[in-house]
Amino acid sequence: MVQILRPDEVRQKYGPLFCKGFLTMVDEKRGVAQVVEKCISKGPGEWDVVNRRRSGGVIKNIRMDGQTLIMDTVIGESELHFGPVSEHVGGQGLAALKVEGDKVRTTWYGIAGATVGIGACIPQCPDVIQTEYPDDFKIGGAHRAHVDIITPKMVRVIVGVDDTDTKEKGASWVTTLKMGNSCPIGSFIEHRIIQLNPKVPNKTTNCCATAVSFAVKEEEIPALIEYCRDFVKKESFSKDSVMTVYKGLSIPPALKEYGLKAKNVILEEGEAIKAAERCGIQVISITGMGGVIGAVAAIGCFDMGGEAAGIPEDFR
Asked: Which of 110, 143, 209, 213 could join 194 via S-S bond, C-beta 3.0 to 4.6 A?
């Protein structure tokens, strides 16, 4: 018989632990997902990165940003391979990620101290709906155990923005960071400043676009777009402010190419609109259309990490 516990019940049973965020975003069209886990400290996260990468399973890429673990996975299940090292140092891995209606089920296995992370730490995070424990579950020591953690099904939405400022007033990156931090819908995930071609004639000082990403439930997307549109309009000093919206975990290659091109070439608005149409980006005029080039490029460059913040010469 399976025991089912809510986060508050897990906390009462094991005492307060350290997981501050646990989000599961899916892209069912492409068969992929992303799990974002926020820890109170960097050390446990670094250990998890090494062990989860070693064990394989459905995790295809795992990295750490500050105290946050970001796991790119496939939707489905795959065998774990703890290897001979588990005999000496334990191990932890994600064996399955499955979509069940409006929920996501992740199946975790742990050995020794790693059972605390999957059995007591993540399950008491407020983002979790419930955790299912098998009858023979034992935590800590030399035990091997598994749990199923149930979370809301979420999707990633990227909102790009450009041209909210003038040479005298404002900064677009400040507008989007304030917008992300204050948004009451879903969870604010990441913020990017995207350096574009500094040689274009029509620009403010830096020629930067900006974008933020959110994890939201599918039905929350219209409300998120409305909130962001109203926020940008209120904060804008420009007559050319544009907002773009993209849903999904994978940026299309053609859109990445466009984003890189915007760092080197002087582009036209029509090319930006065509790129948006080809790649499934919604373009929203806030006060005009002059910012469409940067707002589309911001989404194209969003997953480039540090390279988004520079021009190609910075990384040669």
From this structure: 209
The helix/strand/coil state of 87 is helix
49: amino acid identity, one letter: V
Q: Which residues contact 91 (CB under 8 A, 6 or more apart)?
A: 51, 54, 55, 82, 83, 85, 109, 110, 111, 112, 114
Model pTM? 0.93
DSSP 102: T
Q: Which residues of 111-126 are buried (b: 16+ CB within 10 A; e: fewer)?
A: bbbbbbbbbbbbbbbe
Please list, in sequence order, all residues whose beta carbon lies within 8 angstroms of the beta carbon of residue 234, skipping any fewer than 6 positions away.
none
3-state class (DSSP) for residue 180: helix
Instruction: Name the token pair of 194.
Output: 């995207």
Q: DSSP labels for 115-152?
A: HHIIIIIGGGSTT--EEEE-TT---STT-EEEEEEEEE
Residues 103-152: tens digit of each pLDDT? 999 999 988 777 889 999 999 999 999 999 999 888 876 677 899 999 99
Phi, psi at 28, each rounded to 5°: -65, -30
Stated length of the chain:
316
Task: Output b/e per residue, 79-95; b: 16+ Cβ within 10 A.
Answer: ebebeeebeeebbbbbb
